[in-house]
Amino acid sequence: MFAIFRRETRNYFSSPIAYIYIAVFYAFASFYFFATTLMSNSTSLSNVFSSLFTISLFLIPILTMRLLSEDRRYKTDQALITAPVSILGIVMGKYLAAVLIYLIGILITLVMAVIVALFATPDWAVIFGHFIGLFLLGAALIAIGTFISSLTENQVIAAVGGFAAGFALMLVDALTSVVSSPLGQSIIEGVSFYQRYQSFTVGVLDFADVIFYLSVCVLFVFFTVRVFEKRRWS
Amino acid sequence: MLEVQHLTKTYGEKRAVDDISFSVSRGEILGFLGPNGAGKSTTMNIITGYLSSTSGTVLVDGFDILADPIKAKSKIGYLPEHPPLYLDMTVAEYLDFMFDLKRVRVPKKAHISEICELVRISDVYGRLIKNLSKGYRQRVGVAQALLGNPDLLILDEPTVGLDPKQIIEIRTLIKELGERHTVILSSHILPEVQAVCERVIVINRGRLVADDTPDNLSHAMSTDHKLTVRIDGPEEKVLALLRGLPSMLEVHPLGQRERDGVYEYTIETENNTDVRREMFRRLADRSWPILSLRSSEMSLEDIFLSLTSDNASAAPLLSGSSDTADAVPEEPDASTGGDN
């Protein structure tokens, strides 16, 4: 698992993917930091974090698109699967490498917090709540992206699938106003990534939300392992 | 070392591998022979745990590939049909990665450089794999399979796409490896198997049609009642003489050879008769010397063709299980073995 993790991490940096991803992420995050925090003389980073939700949705497929599809296309999965490693180890190695790149991206928000701290005392608890929320959101989205990447050997399809999944997650919230039955509404609220994320951005670290995102990670990593298994048996 | 029992793999209606059983003992070099799409690659992919079988078991050094995959896989070095190379890595990075992936427990630097010497890739050690030629890539693939000195080496068409010089090099290498490892080698190139392997398994349409040494195979299929003879003497008269031999079935003139008055003939007698002595005596009486005489023993090529072109005629070769091979009706020839 660690061998795969190391290889994937190195691979991100030997190709332009990591640099482009991190640069774009920093650019957007800094723009919102400037526009919503510095310009309005505020110490609150809440607006930055809530816009990073959308940015993560659209940038994460770039991180995950080649994660497993490339191995399948170039048949390097044969080396991985026939090596004395469990399939979970293979998937986790790749998954954690993507999470690491994502983490490097979101660390910029802590730099912003330090910049704010130079002028006034920020609410550190709220900022760490934000940070954990953003991290969990990304971890869950990366798990979904990894799963989509395992379904195809074409990177473009994996990326488009990832965008579609991200867009669908955004649209889910729009459905609440359309669906009239209270049961339907509560189901939508239950699966909504945005509502869960909102409670982080107002500074509430709800245990249920943490469990929600972690379950999504576990579920989709599990699905990915099943995809590998199924391919062997088919 | 390796025990394969009743291995079957079906893709929907298609049977890519159909009830294959064999075992390989330690130190053996086994050739896996079959036409394209016969199920060679599928079988190897199942043995190495890349695919799962529909039924049947694979034991690697006593460990079941499904029940105990990590232990079984650690005994195997596998070179698939397409070497699983990361093109954007250098040879050094790639071997380093594979070394870690296989969790080899020997000093890393010494081990890798020893293998690079063995497969002669030391001179491209620092280069990106995507810039290497096919021959070098293949050798990097072999190097990867050798990491950790696995007991069992499985090489799927290791010489495909190489030039003749490289083929000879790889063959020599495999022979060297056979001294320390158990090797299974697949090929559809017969001289290769004949040159390298001590034992040959022929599969066709997913089924095992022969399992023997290359020599025994050609002997079993050879027909000592078919001879080719070259005689210095007038064609018509010699022909008449040959036709007059006891238990002669057929004589075919093949035409003139060497120079005037020398002709070649193929003769076929009834089974279990040896006409050579009588023929010699009669020809000697007329002082028509025999310049050459050879039995038309089949080369591995002929055996291969006859085994793989017609299932029914090949069945008797399989000692012990010929009855089952006869009973199964002909399969539609659609095994997709090598292409997944």
The Cα radius of gyration of chain A reads 19 Å
Number of domains of chain A: 1
Order of helices and strands of chain B: EEEHEEHEHHHEHEHEEHEHEEHEHHH
Q: What's the shape of chain B? A: elongated
What is the strand tally of chain A? 0
Helix content of chain A: over 70%
**Portion in helices of chain B:** 25-40%
Shape of chain A: globular
Total DSSP helices of chain B: 13
- What's the story with the biggest beta sheet of chain B? 6 strands, mixed
Distance between the termini of chain A: 25 Å
Query: Ranges of chain A with pLDDT <50 over ≥5 residues?
Result: none
Order of helices and strands of chain A: HHHHHHHHHHHH
What is the CATH class of the largest domain in chain B? Alpha Beta
Largest sheet of chain A: none
**Number of beta strands of chain B:** 14
What are the main properties of this structure?
heterodimer; A: 234 residues; mainly alpha; globular; B: 340 residues; alpha/beta; Rossmann fold; Alpha-Beta Plaits; 2 domains; six-stranded mixed sheet; four-stranded antiparallel sheet; 14 strands; elongated
Q: Would you write up a description of this structure?
A:
The complex is a heterodimer of chains A (234) and B (340). Chain A is built from twelve helices and no strands. Chain A has 234 residues and is mainly alpha-helical. In chain A, α2 packs parallel to α7. Chain A starts with a helix and ends with a helix. The model of chain A has no long low-confidence stretch (mean pLDDT 89). Chain B is an alpha/beta fold and 340 residues long. Chain B has a six-stranded mixed β-sheet, sandwiched between helices. The chains are: A mainly alpha (234), B alpha/beta (340). At the A-B interface, α1 and α5 of A face α2 and α3 of B.
